[in-house]
Amino acid sequence: MSIITGTRFTEKLKASSGEQWNRVVTHRFTKELAAGTIDREVLKKYLVQDHRFLDAFVVLLASIVANARSLSDRIPACQFLALITAKENTYFERCFESMNCSSEERKTIPDAACTTGFCNLMRQVAQNGTLGEMLSVIVVCEWTYMSWADLVKDVTVREDFTTYEWVDLHSGPEFEGVVS
Amino acid sequence: MSIITGTRFTEKLKASSGEQWNRVVTHRFTKELAAGTIDREVLKKYLVQDHRFLDAFVVLLASIVANARSLSDRIPACQFLALITAKENTYFERCFESMNCSSEERKTIPDAACTTGFCNLMRQVAQNGTLGEMLSVIVVCEWTYMSWADLVKDVTVREDFTTYEWVDLHSGPEFEGVVS
Question: What ipTM was predicted for this assembly?
Answer without folding.
Answer: 0.81
